[in-house]
Amino acid sequence: MKEENNNNTIKPGNFIKEIIEKDLETGKYGGRVFTRFPPEPNGYLHIGHAKSICLNFGLANEYKGKCNLRFDDTNPTKEEQEYVDSIKADIKWLGFDWEDREFYASDYFDQLYEYAVILIKKGKAYVDSCSSDEIKEMRGVPTKPGVESPFRNRTVEENLDLFEKMKSGNFKDGEHVLRAKIDMSSPNMNMRDPIIYRIRHASHHRTGDRWCIYPMYDWAHGQSDSIERITHSICTLEFENHRPLYDWFIENIGIYSPQQIEFARLNLNYTIMSKRKLLKLVQDGYVDGWDDPRMPTLSAYRRRGYTPESIRNFAESVGVAKRDNVIDVSLLEYSIRDDLNKKAQRVMAVLRPIKVVITNYPDEQVEELDAVNNPEDESMGRRKVPFSKILFIERDDFQEIPHKKFFRLSPGSEVRLRYAYIIKCEEVIKDSSSGEIIELKCTYDPDTRSGSGTSTKKVKGTIHWVSARHAVTAEVRLYDRLFNHPDPGGDKETDFIEHINPDSLETLKGCKLEPFLSAANPGDRFQFERLGYFCVDTKYSKPGSLVFNRTVTLKDTWAKIEKAKQ
RNA sequence: UGCCCGAUCGUCUAAUGGUAGGACACCGGCCUUUGGAGCCGUAUGUGGAGGUUCGAAUCCUCCUCGGGCAGCCA
C-alpha cells in the first residue's frame, strides 16, 4: 500500500526541468540530456554536494540521459588523491553510477593548451608579465573600469613564443600569465582580461610533473563541458557572472556550446558548509576527522547512521530554485526518522541504568518474552527477550517526586515494563553517604504479563528495561548539533569556532543492551525504543566491545513540554 | 552606489492571467503496551506604490530589501 503511494508520488517540478523539457520539445540538443557532477578533489563531499549530485544524476536518470563524474583538478596545490577516492565512495554510497565516465579536467590539459594557442593566434589572448599585485591594481573595482596592461599589445609571434616557454619551464612561478584579451572596462569583472594560465611548478596528483602551467578554473570548466558534449551544465549561483565569459571562450574558440543553468546552493541552519572551514575543523582537531558524525559530510552522515535514501529524499524535498535559502535541519532529521521508522529493528537499551529488583519474582526464574521487531513492518518478525528478577531501567524513567504528568515510575506508582509486567515501586534504596539512588525495590503483578489477556489493569506509562544478567554492555555516543548558532559562519566579526557547541558529544559507557544486540555488526541500524535511532560505529566498534552512535532522537513531545515550562 | 540575480506562510517550495496549495516546524485533538509512529484539525504568506486586464503572486513601471562579482581559488 505504502509502496504504491510512493510509486504514484509525482516528483515536484522545478525551473531546470522546465528548461530541459522545452529543449527536448524544440530538439535543441537532438533529444540528448547530458549532465555532469564536477567536484574539486580538495575536500570531502558534504550535504550541499548531495543536492547537486541528486540533481545532476537525477535529471539524467529521469530524461534517459547520462551524467558524468568530472573532477575539476586544475589546482595541484590543493588537490589530493585521498579526496578523489572519498568522493567516488560517497557518490556510490548515495546510489549513483557514472559507469565508465570518470573524467578529469586534467585529461584535457593538452586540448586546453591547444585552445589557448588558437586564442593567441586570433589575437584574443596575450602573455602578461606584470606582477600579481600590478594586475590586481589595474583590474579596477566593480564601480570603476580597469586599465590595460602595457603587455596587452604584444605580437602574436611574441605571445606564442612566450606561452611556449611558459609551458617548457623557462620561467619561475608568477613571472608571466596568459590572459584573454576582452575588455578592461567591462562592468562584469570576469571580462576584464581574465587570467587563463598561470605558472605553478607543482606536482599534480594525476599528471605529476608533466606540466608547470595550469589552466584557471574559468578556462577549464566550460571547455570541459564542451568536450564532453554536456547539454545542461548545472552550477550554483555564484557562477552566473561567469557565464558570459564561458560563452565568450566557446564562441572564440569555435566549439560546441553547452547551456549553463544556475541554481541556489543548499544552506542548512546550525551547519557550516564551507569546505575551507570544514578543513579547519579537521586540521585543528575540533572534530575526529572528516567522518566525525557531527560533520555535515556524507561520510559523517553515513557513519552516523543516515541512509542514502534519507539523504536522497531530503535532497528532493528541499527543491531547486534560484533564491537563496536556509533549510531547517529539522527537515533533514525528519527525513532520516521517516526512513528508519519503516526499516529499523526495534530493540531495548538502557543508556543510564538504575538497578531494579523485583522482590516477589522467583530468584532463578527466566522468562522469554515475545517482542515485535518493527510495528511498522510485520514481515520483520518477532524475537524473544529474557526477563528475570534483577533488571535495569532508565534513570530518567524514575522520579522520586514525580511531576503532575509524569507517567513513569515513582514511589508507590505503577508502570508497564514493555512486553513484560506491570510493576510497582515499593522502596527506594540510596547510598548512605552520597544520597544517590542506587536501587529500586519493586513488586510485579503476575496477572499483567503482556499478551496474556488476564489483566484489565491499565497504566499510563510504558518503559523499557533490560535483564541484568543477560545484558550486553556497550558504549553509546550521543551527538548534538556541532554549532549552537543558527548561522555559525554568517558573522564576519566572529570566528565560527566560537560557535562550536561544547556539548555536541556525550559518551556514555556501561550502557545495558538486550542480548539480541550481541550479534550486531558495524553499520547495523536499530531503534532503541523510546530513545532514538542508533547504529554500530564502523570506526571504533569491535566484537565484544560495541560502540553505538545515536543517529537521531525520536521526536520527544514530553521533553518539549518540559522545556517549554522552564 | 557599476553589472548580474533574486523576493509567496516561521523555514522551504508550488501556482505559468482564473479558488494561493504542499512539506517541515508550530499549536490543539484522537489513538497508542515506544510520551515514537499514525490519524484529524487550527493558525500563519504573495515586500511597497502605481499601471494593464472582466480578473494579477504571475505582465509593465518605479521603489524597497537581500545575495553575488574586485584570487595567478573553485
Could you write a compact summary of the structure shown?
With 566 residues, the chain is α/β, with parallel strands linked by helices.
Q: Please, could you describe this protein's structure?
A:
This protein is an alpha/beta fold and 566 residues long. It has 3 domains: 3-263, 3-Layer(aba) Sandwich (Rossmann fold), CATH 3.40.50; 275-345 and 474-565, Ribosomal Protein L25, Chain P (Beta Barrel); 353-458, Ribosomal Protein L25, Chain P, CATH 2.40.240.10. Helix content is 28%, strand content 22%. It has helices at residues 2-8, 15-26, 47-62, 81-94, 109-121, 132-139, 156-168, 217-227, 243-253, 275-283, 298-304, 308-318, 329-343, 557-565, and strands spanning 34-37, 66-71, 102-104, 125-128, 177-180, 195-199, 213-215, 232-236, 259-263, 345-347, 349-350, 353-358, 367-372, 382-387, 390-394, 414-417, 422-430, 437-445, 462-463, 465-467, 472-479, 505-513, 525-528, 532-536, 547-553. Strands 10-23-24-25-21-22-11 form a 7-stranded mixed β-sheet. A 7-stranded mixed β-sheet has the order 19-16-17-18-12-15-20, with no helix packed on it. α3 (47-62) crosses α12, α8 (217-227) crosses α9 (243-253) and α12 packs across α13 (329-343). It is elongated, with a radius of gyration of 31 Å. The two termini are 43 Å apart. Mean pLDDT is 95; it is low at 1-9.
